[in-house]
């Protein structure tokens, strides 16, 4: 159970502590931040509201710890990461329980998130050993005018202190996707978890503590992003920010100093369906892509652009599948569970009401109880409706009927977002042309958008982000290149 057994020391009475300098602590602010269970809409957990002084202390320890961590052999860093991964996987039950209570993630998916996170850490350790163990060797005589008098050796070195800020929807997985690469590359890491998801993240951090990482190397400060966010992201001790979330990331990019940024932000992933598509496959992917975790995924299918000639048939198939989705509490593993907060539910309702006023076709009756919104397919959506462009982050999916493929590509590219997209057709040549024309970081052919497997490159363009994630890219992003040049007094050529 959460906060018991191995996790007793992270809890103080009714509130979870924050993690600094290798210890679990109460904040001197004396203030607690409540975490509301989306299902009951009652306070379920409380975490510390950390102060600016506490953030300063964490940054100081992170800086000191990083200096000796960078001198720790790569294989030893990898060994500790493997240890943390196995503890995390062993502790999947209490951590999954937190995910169910804090973010209403269906119980089975919550366990999957923790196990996937353990696998991600292990893969990161292995990949780090491979790619950080290699450098480059350059010879000067390949550049015009030079003799072979200079040998250039390059290697990858850490950046220093990495600040990681994940979103609520994968508070464990999207935290370890930043922590693993940062640590294997020799950085220290400060985590600011999302408030909804903070207790799951604190349990995850305790697994790193139990694995025996040096004190100060990893810390976790809690508090509302709106209160401590700016202080953290503009802190002079931070050498890199890896952020996943919504528009907040755009504001952070403008405020952060001259440091590397990795931003994974929102999306409005389009699903383009051609006349020759396998409509059963499309319908199954629309259900999985649009309604898994109640649509609260960055890579959820967020607009279907279907050729008019097959639109009736597709909508019927999707409607039949929507009718089979179970709706209810996450503890019962329902397909559709309450969305994360009341304000999120109100926002989704605003999009639905706008579509109703503008006469979209409602394939189901709109129904909401508290934060629980029943799955809804909106047909005949037009570009003048908000739902055609905005990210509901809920179980509501618009269908726009198109008469040409170009119309679909145009709609996709007119969006401010450019995370992923997908195209369904049996014609691989057409699929490739459409993929090339879509201005998104990734295009999936004949499958719904997805972030995983976690070692694939993952990136958004336009307002969807800066840089690329995926294990290898994140490790590289959290390093810089160092070169040493050996200058010879006379040219020297190897003769064979
Ligand atoms: P969010 O509101 O942007 O919050 C993300 C994180 O930022 C949270 O930890 C939040 O903390 C923190 N934060 C808030 N204000 C801050 C500030 N001023 N400075 C620094 N940090 C601050 O996003 P969300 O609602 O958690 O997640 C949903 C969004 O994430 C969607 O737009 C979704 O598409 C996107 N997302 C993108 C990806 C991707 O990889 N592209 C993956 C998943 C989700 P608090 O919780 O304390 O406010």
UniProtKB/TrEMBL annotation:
Positions in coiled-coil regions: none
Key words, A-Z: Cytoplasm, NADP, Oxidoreductase
Aldehyde dehydrogenase domain ranges (all copies): 24-483
Compartment(s) where it occurs, according to its Swiss-Prot or TrEMBL record: Cytoplasm
Classification via InterPro entries: Ald_DH/histidinol_DH, Ald_DH_C, Ald_DH_CS_CYS, Ald_DH_CS_GLU, Ald_DH_N, Aldehyde_DH_dom, ALDH-related_metabolic_enz
GO cellular component: cytoplasm
Protein name: NADP-dependent glyceraldehyde-3-phosphate dehydrogenase
Similarity annotation: Belongs to the aldehyde dehydrogenase family.
A Pfam match: Aldedh
Catalytic function, reaction form: D-glyceraldehyde 3-phosphate + NADP(+) + H2O = (2R)-3-phosphoglycerate + NADPH + 2 H(+)
Active site (catalytic residues): 264
Signal peptide from the UniProt entry: none
């Amino acid at each position: 159970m959460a906060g018991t057994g191995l996790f007793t020391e992270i809890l103080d009475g009714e509130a979870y502590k924050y993690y600094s300098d290798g210890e679990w602590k109460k904040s001197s602010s004396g203030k607690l931040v409540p975490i509301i269970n989306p299902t009951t809409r009652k306070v379920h957990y409380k975490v510390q509201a950390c102060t600016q002084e506490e953030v300063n202390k964490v940054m100081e320890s992170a800086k000191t710890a990083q200096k000796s961590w960078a001198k720790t052999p790569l294989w030893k860093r990898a060994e500790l990461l493997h240890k943390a991964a196995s503890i995390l996987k062993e502790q999947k039950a209490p951590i999954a329980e937190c995910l169910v209570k804090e973010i209403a993630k269906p119980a089975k998916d919550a366990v999957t998130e923790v196990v996937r996170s353990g696998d991600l850490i292990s893969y990161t350790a292995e990949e780090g050993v491979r790619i950080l163990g290699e450098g480059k060797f350059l010879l000067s005589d390949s550049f015009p005018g030079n003799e072979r008098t200079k040998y250039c050796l390059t290697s990858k070195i850490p950046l220093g202190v990495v600040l990681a800020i994940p979103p609520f929807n994968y508070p464990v997985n999207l935290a370890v996707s930043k922590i693993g690469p940062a640590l294997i590359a020799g950085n220290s890491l400060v985590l600011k978890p999302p408030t909804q998801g903070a207790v799951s993240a604190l349990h995850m951090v305790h697994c790193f503590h139990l694995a025996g990482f040096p004190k100060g190397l990893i810390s976790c400060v809690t508090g509302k992003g709106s209160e401590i966010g700016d202080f953290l992201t503009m802190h002079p001790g931070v050498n890199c920010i890896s952020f996943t979330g919504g528009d907040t990331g755009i504001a952070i990019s403008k405020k952060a100093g001259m440091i590397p940024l990795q931003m994974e932000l929102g999306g409005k992933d389009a699903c383009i369906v051609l006349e020759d598509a396998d409509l059963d496959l499309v319908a199954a992917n629309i259900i999985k892509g649009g309604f898994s975790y109640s649509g609260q995924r960055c890579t959820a299918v967020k607009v279907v652009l279907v050729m008019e000639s097959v639109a009736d048939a597709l909508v019927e198939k999707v409607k039949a599948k929507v009718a089979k989705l179970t709706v209810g509490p996450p503890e019962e593993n329902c397909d559709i569970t309450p969305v994360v907060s009341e304000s999120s539910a109100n926002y989704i309702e605003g999009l639905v009401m706008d579509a109703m006023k503008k006469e979209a076709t409602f394939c189901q009756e709109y129904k909401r109880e508290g934060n629980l919104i029943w799955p809804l397919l909106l047909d005949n959506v037009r570009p003048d409706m908000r739902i055609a462009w905005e990210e509901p982050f809920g179980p509501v999916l618009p269908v726009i009927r198109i008469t040409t493929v170009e119309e679909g590509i145009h709609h996709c590219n007119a969006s401010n977002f450019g995370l992923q997209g997908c195209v369904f057709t049996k014609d691989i040549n057409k699929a490739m042309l459409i993929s090339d024309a879509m201005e998104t970081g990734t295009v999936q052919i004949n499958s719904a958008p997805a972030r995983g497997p976690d070692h694939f490159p993952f990136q958004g363009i336009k307002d969807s982000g800066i840089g690329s994630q995926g294990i290898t890219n994140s490790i590289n992003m959290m390093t810089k290149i160092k070169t040493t040049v050996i200058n010879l007094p006379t040219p020297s050529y190897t003769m064979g």
